[in-house]
């Protein structure tokens, strides 16, 4: 039986604690600044803690603490606080979406204190509670071996084709500090491109002459099509829940940084990534970032070609002198 502390009990962290307690005998000590989140973890048979100090005291040495908070300052502050409470031989695991360079820096900073640092890139979202989480791991091999029983519970079983390559469970150790989050970063960059391709395809359906049921199309494509995927299954669910035109959803798409980091590192290695780059730019456009550029384009077309422009809901313009 393994014992682990969990810091951060949001949609991902809370479900991970629940899966560990539901599917194994491993012990979890859980902390979050949101007391309601801690109480939910306690209802899942975890032991609640009222502070990081209490969480550390509730763990038997050598300890392992999994941090599942937003990347950037929240993660750094949590790691810094834990470093003052933990002892030589303990392990800190970052399961958020940290940049791999931050992992390398943190691992180096913790090394003199004898605290190991493991980075785990986690994919699976809110569905991971039921189907499991795909996990990409970096860090010292000894620390990863200690963490393996927890990873085994969180990961889904592999299919027959994958079992020979990666083992019976859906996680893999890729190398030293940062390796796990590096693989997850590129994973998310690819995800950007896949999502954009689906979005554009369904946009064509939305504008075409036929009255097409997009949910049924997405379900059909899941039946042996070369474009079948979990994302396609999720598209079907989204159309069913929100209607064929997704009228209740605002077309605003945020990004958590991995696409940008993928593009930056690809550029540093002279690797062209036009699809991932274009998909990131489309996300930026969805936030209104391209609205002024669109107005400039419309104004220029009106000036050189007399093409109509729209203003306040009506079209006006000079007689067309050409096209472009």
Notes on the protein architecture:
- The chain is of the alpha/beta class and 324 residues long.
- It has 14 helices and ten strands.
- The strands form two sheets. An eight-stranded mixed β-sheet has the order 3-2-1-4-5-6-7-8, with helices on both faces.
- Helix 5 (100-110) links the parallel strand 5 and strand 6 (116-123).
- Helix 9 (179-207) packs across helix 13 (274-286).
- The longest helix has 29 residues, at 179-207.
- The protein is globular.
- Residues 318-323 have low confidence and may be disordered.
Give me a quick take on this structure.
This protein is of the alpha/beta class and 324 residues long. 51% of the residues lie in helices and 14% in strands. The chain has helices spanning 11-23, 35-43, 52-57, 73-85, 100-110, 128-131, 141-154, 160-166, 179-207, 214-221, 230-242, 258-268, 274-286, 291-305, and strands spanning 3-7, 27-31, 47-48, 64-67, 91-94, 116-123, 134-138, 171-175, 309-311, 314-316.
